[in-house]
Amino acid sequence: MAETKDARLDFNIVQEENKVDTSKKLRVGIIGCGWIADAHMDCYKKMADVEIVAGADLVPGKAAAFMAKHGIPDAKTDYASHKEMLDDESLQLDAVSICTYNRQHAEPAIYALNKGVNVLLEKPFTVTLDEAAEVMRAEKASGKILSIGFQPRLDANMQMIKKIVESGELGDIYYIQTGGGRRRGIPTPFGTTFIEDKTAGLGALGDIGCYSLDMVLNAIGYPKPLTVTGYKSAFFGKDPNYSGYREDKKAEYASLFSVDDFAAAFIRLEGGIILDFRIAWAMNLNTPGDTIILGTKGGLRIPSTECWNGSVGGPMKIYHEVAGLQTETVIPTLPGGDLFFKKIRSFLDAIKNGDPAPVPSSQIIYNQAILDGIARSAELGREIEIEIPEI
């Protein structure tokens, strides 16, 4: 009979709090003052070594209203664009948070890096692989920090997944199934920014798909993607009867919907690893399934969540053999803490301490290559090879 044991002591992750030096405040600006910028601002306001000095948004008056709402009326906001803000040398910016819609990620990131300003760029990295490569070239030339906003990897459970893989407990990894989704969860409470191609570029793929990919790719060391066969659809988003839309906006949202609400792919990675991926904003299931990582010595099951939020849906389990006995080892869930705060804090600490980017572009370009590859393969209706541009 199979036995179950608790690995609470076997895979312990120690979390250490870094002491913050408040003798020098970092001067920070925010580019894009929509709803995700609120989360950035809430974190910055809790940090004694940060001074928010400026904000910019393409919508006139939006940045000023944003700063007033957060009690920072002295921040400069009289800019028509991110370029005007970054050209203002009186600001003496140390860093910017880029919180624009997806299709506006690359341009301000490149401009900020060229100005010698460190960048925290919200996810997804960009919309296309070529854009990501251009940002990385600017990063390389500047010598500044570029960190991508993948806060789920700072969750203790995500770190545990990586720790398990690196321990060798699973042996050589050869197959991974991952993804996530929502039964009804197309993000329209804040308007149409997420669902129009002209602003989003990618739908569920870029919004939550990038997180699911990072969960497993980070755990196995981010091997290079080689080929991808991708599929995407938009059956729910384009349906004016979709029950997830507010009643008075159904026809409008359905007519404007021009991204993916479901995507799937079969990806070949270096090292002979197969990645089976699926992601959904809307589907007729509560989940597309648990994440599983299969190795030659053991397998890891990571329970899904009904609304993918960057954590795990319950205790994980390792399936392996001990002295010839088939055994399951339960990995208890760990408290994640404020992941958004950790994302901001780790970025600032890297600036102050001269450390590498917490979520480096050198990894996330592979994530972006897969997203880009899925979209291109889906359009072509066939498998494609992934070629990473020279940086």
Distance between the termini: 54 Å
Tell me the number of helical segments per DSSP (H or I, 4 or more residues long).
Answer: 10
Beta-strand residue percentage: 15-25%
> Into how many domains do the coordinates divide?
2
Percent helix, as a range, is: 25-40%
What is the architecture of the largest domain at the second tier of CATH? Answer: 2-Layer Sandwich
| CATH class category name of the largest domain | Alpha Beta
The low-confidence parts are 1-17
Strand order of the largest sheet: 1-14-13-12-11-7-10-9-8-15
Q: Tell the overall outline.
A: globular
Mean residue pLDDT? 94
Summarize the structure.
This protein has ten helices and 15 strands. By secondary structure, the protein is of the alpha/beta class. The protein has two domains: 26-151 and 342-358, NAD(P)-binding Rossmann-like Domain (Rossmann fold), CATH 3.40.50; 153-336 and 368-385, Dihydrodipicolinate Reductase, domain 2.
Any key phrases for this structure?
single chain, 391 residues, alpha/beta, Rossmann fold, Dihydrodipicolinate Reductase, domain 2, 2 domains, ten-stranded mixed beta sheet, five-stranded parallel beta sheet, 15 strands, 30% helix, globular, disordered N terminus
Q: Your description of this structure?
A:
The protein has 391 residues and is an alpha/beta fold. The chain has 2 domains: 26-151 and 342-358, 3-Layer(aba) Sandwich (Rossmann fold), CATH 3.40.50.720; 153-336 and 368-385, Dihydrodipicolinate Reductase, domain 2. Helix content is 30%, strand content 23%. It is built from 10 helices and 15 strands. It has helices at 35-44, 62-69, 82-87, 106-114, 129-142, 156-167, 204-219, 250-256, 339-353, 361-380; strands at residues 3-6, 26-31, 50-56, 95-98, 118-122, 146-149, 173-181, 225-233, 262-269, 273-280, 291-295, 298-302, 316-322, 325-331, 384-385. The strands form 2 sheets. The chain has a 10-stranded mixed sheet with strand order 1-14-13-12-11-7-10-9-8-15. Strands 3-2-4-5-6 form a 5-stranded parallel sheet, sandwiched between helices. Strand 5 (118-122), helix 5 and strand 6 (146-149) form a beta-alpha-beta unit. Helix 1 (35-44) packs across helix 9 and helix 5 packs antiparallel against helix 10 (361-380). The protein is globular, with a radius of gyration of 21 Å. It starts with a strand and ends in a 6-residue tail after the last strand.
